[in-house]
Amino acid sequence: MQIDIITVVPDLLQSPFSHSIMKRAADKGLLQVNVINLRNYGLGKSKQVDDKAFGGEAGMVMMIEPIANCINDLKAKKNYDEVIYMTPDGKTFNQKMANQLSLKENLIILCGHYKGIDERLREHFITMEISVGDYVLSGGELAAAVVVDAVGRLIPGVLNDESSALFDSFQDDLLSHPIYTRPAEYNGWKVPPVLLSGDPKLVKQWKEEQSLKRTEERRPDLLK
Ligand code: ADE
Predict the structure, then answer these.
(1) Which residue lies with its CA nearest to atom 6 of ligand 1?
(2) Fold classification of 2-152 (topology level)
C-alpha cells in the first residue's frame, strides 16, 4: 500500500512512521508513506497556500489551487482508491474503517489547517472525510498519523503474529480481556489462577467472559 500525505507541516510526520510496527511495514515493503510538502505548490514568491475567507469570517482558508495542483500531479502518476480529508466534521474513525482502508492500494490523505479547505475541494476532489474524534486539533497531521498507524498494522504480513490483530479490542465490537505476564505474583497481587491452569478451554472461556464484562462496564454502547 502507498499512502501520500499532503501537509503544510511535513516535519510533524517524520517520526511516527519510522519506528516499531510502522517501520517494519516499510522495511518489508508493505507500506510506503510519502509526505508531500504543500508549500512546494504554493502560489507566487511567498508560496502562498491560504487566504482570507470570503464573507468576512475570521481565520484563513486553504486555497484551492495549491491543493488541486498537488492532487492532480499525484493522480497523473497513479490511480488512487480514496482521497481522504482529515477534518473534525468528517466521519468518526473506527476499527471497521481501518479494516476497510487496509484493503486499499493507494491513498491520498490531505491534512487540513487554519479554518479548513475551500469547500470546492471537498466537492470535487475529496472522496472520504475522516475525524479522529469530537475535538479540534490544530491540524490534520496527528489525526492522519493515527489513521495510517491503525490501517498500516492491519496490512497482511505487517504484524509478526498474523492472528494477533484479530484479537484486538474493537475487532469484534468487544474490548480486550485483561492481560498478564510474569511474575505470577507481585506484591501479593496474583494473576487469575485460570490463566496458569494450562486448560485452553477454560482460558478461552475466561477471556470471553472478561471481554464481555469489560465491554459492559466501559463501553455498553458497543453491545447495542
Ligand atoms: N483536524 C482537526 N481536528 C481534527 C479531528 N478531530 N480529526 C481529524 N482531523 C482534524
Answers:
(1) 88
(2) Alpha/beta knot (3.40.1280)
pLDDT in tens, the chain (224 residues): 999 999 999 999 999 999 999 999 999 999 999 999 999 999 999 999 999 999 998 999 999 999 999 999 999 999 999 999 999 999 999 999 999 999 999 999 999 988 999 999 999 999 999 999 999 999 999 999 999 999 999 999 999 875 577 778 787 889 999 999 999 999 999 999 999 999 999 999 999 999 999 999 999 999 98
Residues with CB under 6 A from ligand 1: 86-88, 112, 131-133, 135-137, 140, 143
CA atoms within 13 A on the CB side of 155: 22
CATH 1.10.1270.20 domain extents, the chain? 169-223
The C-alpha cell that represents 25 in the structure block:
511495514
The residues with which 35 forms a beta bridge, in sequence order, are 5
> SS3 for 194?
helix
> Which residue's CA is the nearest one to ligand 1's atom 10?
87
